[in-house]
UniProtKB/TrEMBL annotation:
This is N5-carboxyaminoimidazole ribonucleotide mutase. The keyword Lyase applies. The lineage of its organism: Bacteria, Pseudomonadati, Pseudomonadota, Alphaproteobacteria, Acetobacterales. It comes from Formicincola oecophyllae. One of its GO terms (molecular function) is 5-(carboxyamino)imidazole ribonucleotide mutase activity. Pfam families: AIRC.
Amino acid sequence: QASASAAGALQGAPLKGTAPGPAQVGIIMGSQSDWPTMRHAAQTLDALGVPWEARIVSAHRTPDRLQAYAKTAQGRGLKTVIAGAGGAAHLPGMAAAWTALPVLGVPVESRILKGRDSLLSIVQMPAGVPVGTLAIGRAGAVNAALLSAAIIALSDAALAQRLADWRAAQTASVAAAPSDEP
Ligand code: RP5
C-alpha cells in the first residue's frame, strides 16, 4: 500500500475518455508538453471503446504523485499503464518499479535530441523490471493504445471483436496504388 503521504499526492480529477465505465488504461506523462503526443493514445482508445484516464505525473518534478499513482493503479482497476516522457525519461521505468501492471513506455520526441534520448532512457531497463517500449512519438502512442487493447481483449470478447474490426478497417483503407492527388 502507498503511504498516507504518497496517497495524498494523487490529487485532482484525471482527464477521461468517451467510453463509459471505470478507466482500464492509465495514461501518464511527465509534462503538459507531452499531451500532443499522448493524446494519440487516448484517441485510439476512444475509437476502440476502452475507458482511460490521463494524468500528468513526473518522475522528477512530482515523485510522490508517481508513487501514489503507480501503487494504487491496480487496485483502482487499471489493466495497463501507458507512460510517455521525453528527455531523461524515467517515468515508465519508475512506474514499472511500483506496479505489477504491464507498463508501456512511449518516448516523446525531445527538442534537442529528437527523442533518441527518450528512447534510450526508456528501453534499457534492467532484467526483472520490464517496460514495453514503443516507437518515438505518435506511432508509439497509437501502438501503446493498441497493445493495451490487445492485452485487455484477452479477457474481453467484445473488445477483441472491436479490435479486429479496427484492424480490418485499417486494411480496407489502404489504397491499391499511389495517387498524384495531394
Ligand atoms: C519530461 O521532460 C517530460 O516528459 C517532457 O517530455 C520533458 C520536457 O518537459 P517540459 O519542460 O516541457 O515540461 O519530464
